[in-house]
Write a structure and sequence with these properties.
Length: 343
């Protein structure tokens, strides 16, 4: 993994900061079937005009369809301020208000002038199609999306403390000492992941800056965002997907992810385990001197872990099992004693 050069792999690899080292993206057509297949399937449930979102896949496992609204919907929203933009990334995130009722929303623009090839345009359409089908309290809700000559515009729920977790760990190097809070964060993320996996998807880029926080009545909830690197699982292939190129964020990619290999939802669980480790001690295992993932068991430095529950370590180890077949699932992790115990 350390030897990855993004260029050699011709892939979309994100730097840990979130921006792109190289924006050519993986060719996803092999993993997803041909694009006409993907984009001409049954109407996506949960979009405007339909009643209920289905929590399962249809028999074909194909329910994600790109059905953008008329670009005129953009006039429903007024810009308040830009929140996020990085030099090499096509993403611009802007705080907006809905003109009619003053509701705060987020617009994520994927700016076409910064998109270098057609496969990336396809992956933007895939992000819209997938994200708009997801409805869960621990996933940022997408309200609407459209495409015009300039950009894809994704209108979504606003999280009022978006970078809380990533700032805590990466900027202030502060672990989450309060076990109740850590448990609530972990549980929220697992519920979101369990839903995503149950819909036949892999998130594909699980990391702290894609886990947005929202505070209401002094309670913090975590909501998963950013489905730009998601995969649709192939039920015929045992709920796995064949990937052509490695994608994800450097330092946050499960060990089994290689070019031309089959992966499953377990890749997200590895990243969840890593996040839980980071939240508990405010550094990654690989930041410890001389440790690399291939060099042995995940290290738990006594000075940092002696006051923490051994059950927390147990959960992390079950998530970061090198063997994806033996890794705990999101649903199982929700039943793990560290999550269910009230201590
Ligand atoms: N719904 C939202 N509410 C608040 N901030 C958001 C929201 N969506 C994205 N952001 C901010 O924008 C950043 C980039 O958004 P993301 O969807 O992760 O884009 P990218 O695909 O470029 O990583 C997030 O890390 C977060 O800081
Ligand atoms: Mg992101």
């Amino acid at each position: 993994m350390k030897n990855i050069t993004s260029e050699a792999l011709g892939m979309k690899v994100r730097k840990p900061s979130g921006n792109y080292l190289y924006f050519k993206t993986r060719a996803r057509s092999r993993s997803f079937g041909s694009l006409p297949d993907l984009f001409n399937q049954d109407e996506c449930e949960g979009r405007e005009g339909t009643d209920e979102i289905s929590h399962g896949m249809d028999e074909e496992g194909k329910i994600f369809k790109f059905t953008p609204s008329d670009p005129k919907i953009k006039t429903k929203y007024a810009e308040v301020k830009e929140l996020f933009q990085e030099v090499l990334s096509p993403t611009v995130v802007t705080l907006m208000t809905e003109v009619e009722d003053d509701k705060t929303v987020i617009k994520k623009s994927l700016v076409k002038s910064k998109i270098l090839c057609d496969t990336v345009l396809e992956s933007c359409r895939r992000e819209c199609a997938i994200h708009s089908c997801l409805k869960h309290p621990n996933i940022i809700e997408m309200y609407d999306y459209t495409e015009d000559d300039e950009e894809f515009s994704l209108f979504m729920e606003y999280a009022n403390k978006p970078m809380y977790l990533s700032e805590l760990v990466n900027d202030t190097h502060t672990p989450v000492e309060d076990q109740h809070m850590l448990r609530k964060i972990a549980e929220d993320i697992l519920k979101g992941l369990s839903y995503i996996h149950g819909r036949g998807l892999i998130h594909g880029d699980v990391k702290l800056c894609n886990m947005l926080c929202h505070e209401e009545n002094d309670v913090i909830s975590v909501k998963i965002c950013d489905f730009g690197l998601s995969y649709i699982l192939d039920q015929e292939k045992g709920n796995k997907v064949l990937i052509k190129d490695v994608s994800g964020t450097l330092g946050h990619i499960a060990p089994e992810v290689k070019s031309n290999c089959m992966i499953g939802p377990e890749v997200d669980i590895w990243c969840f385990g890593l996040m839980l480790y980071e939240l508990a001690v405010a550094y990654k295992p690989t930041q410890l001197k001389s440790y690399t993932y291939s060099s042995g068991d995940i290290p738990f430095r006594r000075v940092d872990w002696r006051r923490k529950s051994p059950l927390l370590q147990d959960l992390i180890l079950k998530c970061m099992n090198y063997n994806p077949e033996k890794r705990i699932s999101a649903e199982e992790a929700l039943q793990h004693p560290w999550i269910t115990s009230q201590e």
